[in-house]
Amino acid sequence: SKLTIGLIPADGIGKEVIPAAQQVLEAVSPNKFAFLHLDAGFELFQKTGVALPEETVEKLKSECAGALFGAVSSPSHKVAGYSSPIVALRKRMDLYANVRPVASPVGAAGKPIDMLIIRENTECLYIKSERLETLPDGTKVAWADRKITEYASKRIARMAFKMALQRGKLREAKRQQGGSVAWQGQPKVTVVHKSNVLSVSDGLFRESCLAVHKEDPSFAGVKLEEQLVDSMVYRMFREPDVFDVAVAPNLYGDIISDGAAALVGSLGVVAGANVGDNFVLGEPVHGSAPDIAGKGIANPIAAIRSAALLLEHLGLASEASRIHSAVDKVLNEQAQAMTPDLGGRGTTKGVTDAVIKLL
Amino acid sequence: SKLTIGLIPADGIGKEVIPAAQQVLEAVSPNKFAFLHLDAGFELFQKTGVALPEETVEKLKSECAGALFGAVSSPSHKVAGYSSPIVALRKRMDLYANVRPVASPVGAAGKPIDMLIIRENTECLYIKSERLETLPDGTKVAWADRKITEYASKRIARMAFKMALQRGKLREAKRQQGGSVAWQGQPKVTVVHKSNVLSVSDGLFRESCLAVHKEDPSFAGVKLEEQLVDSMVYRMFREPDVFDVAVAPNLYGDIISDGAAALVGSLGVVAGANVGDNFVLGEPVHGSAPDIAGKGIANPIAAIRSAALLLEHLGLASEASRIHSAVDKVLNEQAQAMTPDLGGRGTTKGVTDAVIKLL
Ligand SMILES: CC(C)[C@H](C(=O)O)[C@@H](O)C(=O)O
Ligand SMILES: CC(C)[C@H](C(=O)O)[C@@H](O)C(=O)O
């Protein structure tokens, strides 16, 4: 029987890159997937007053093996009743890890990058617990709660150490086949925090990561390092080649993944997956890009790679690797065919067709 | 009579770069300054149990016209009773703006950079209001409060618009003298926030900046833009040349200033000033760099430029500009004499002497 994949293009270029990813999935295994089109987004909210319909969440849970999400637009001003559907979806489905691989043979500063960013996806300032008060003098003060739990921190740390070990094994295998591998050292996890200021909350995140490192004997094979978030941004740009896996609380993870994307040339190539114990939602790191939406020039590679990440999590490793290889070939050999974000004059359709041809 | 400058080297390379800055101040105007040496830091805390002695705060307030701070070390684990003395000092002296100019004729991506980052310096997560709870299942949960006030947001926005206008005038003057100027457009302020997630707190920051833009007719000459903090890090790396002044809440300001520093080659050249209505504390953006402390190879340029920023705020514009010119010349003409962070084999003393020679 077919695997049902939910498709939630949402806003802006999401409506262009998700259909592109769908085509690639159809091509990589013609009779394997059924697709279920689901609604969410700011545009939907403007039409219906609802950003994330209950039906979407229900159908994801009851009918889909996994799903792909496009991107959401952000209103520039506060809109009563609106709240980001992707933040809500991550929480509702308990997709606690946002897994973002960032790799490039030659990145900024001419150094190779092969990083995996593991962003905690359910708490930190993203719990959106905020209050507005008016002071006696009539001016306003706003409060936001930042929540860090031992439970979520340990869970995300475990994921980071496991992924680091898995990446180590894949590199080893590649090396034995005579392949070249950017990262030479032992598997490594860099814990990103700001415990010099947030000694309690980031202190708890940090200690939870350290505790997990000790709890499982196999994790001893992973080197543990830590980096303050400000220094992390600095070092990523100067020495991107020293990082393997980075694990971070939600907001820092958001920021460093955009930073890492800049290093590989474009947000348009950086894939992500929102991962829970029972469900995976592929989602490119880029946004809805209103400035280029509807022009047919959005880079579909991030969405296509996100589809491949989804397949990996569904146990379809060989299909996933065929997609990755095709994308890599297109990126390496057809630079002129690339979309404008990569300096080319190509289109969403052109790049998608090129990938499909090489599958 | 002499102007008294407080000197707080604090930890690590602070003990090397602050004396270097002092020498430059002595040389630029031999009989103008008296220096008062004051204590603070993590090393002091380890010896005495106090990170910021009351005497230091008192003497700054009663005896000093302004001061220079070096850097503080951060303990990697939580230390009972210790809290960052620089964060405390900013708050105690109400130094509400952290002003960080980042400029380079050719930065990363081969594009010129000439940015001024204005970081709010008194609130956000830096109020350090945190709590630890134990849940019924025995695991821990930590809470941190993030505070954003209309008062502090408007105050920092005003500073940003004023600085943008002032920079515009200086550029105009330079242009008329036939000089070349990196930034070509109208003065611009980019408001950095994450109001798509923190609609109340970053919403208040954003609205306060917008309100200030309207309140003073002269601010109409400044273009107002906004950028989500994750996109800001991304765009700074891809198009650093499109930014003029950026204003940000405390933590985002911390992160983007390290990011900007990476663009100009080294944290070792990026100066800062903690500015209040009645006091200015110069402070390089770099940290205490324990890995190179005591070796005599710390780059003194950030501290020397911070001293120049202090002089500007004290009304000593011509002395400040002599220091800036000397530093620029050394950077442009004596690359081999530079410290290792800039790829040279120079020393703190060598660079300091070179600057003094060119004053
Ligand atoms: C759209 C926004 C809410 C989202 C986030 O901050 O998580 C985006 O920046 C991302 O990285 O997926
Ligand atoms: C040392 C630390 C508390 C400080 C900060 O976060 O403000 C530093 O990173 C800075 O930028 O001055």
TrEMBL record, chains A, B:
Any GO MF annotation of the entry: NAD binding
* Gene Ontology cellular-component annotations: mitochondrion
Q: Which GO terms describe its biological process?
A: isocitrate metabolic process; lysine biosynthetic process via aminoadipic acid; tricarboxylic acid cycle
Family matches, as InterPro entries: IsoCit/isopropylmalate_DH_CS, IsoPropMal-DH-like_dom
Q: Which SUPFAM superfamilies match?
A: Isocitrate/Isopropylmalate dehydrogenase-like
Question: Which part of the chain is the Isopropylmalate dehydrogenase-like domain?
Answer: 4-355
Q: Where is the signal peptide?
A: none
PANTHER family, per database record: DECARBOXYLATING DEHYDROGENASES-ISOCITRATE, ISOPROPYLMALATE, TARTRATE, HOMOISOCITRATE DEHYDROGENASE, MITOCHONDRIAL
Record family assignment: Belongs to the isocitrate and isopropylmalate dehydrogenases family.
Its protein name is Isopropylmalate dehydrogenase-like domain-containing protein
Specify the taxonomic lineage. Answer: Eukaryota, Fungi, Fungi incertae sedis, Chytridiomycota, Chytridiomycota incertae sedis
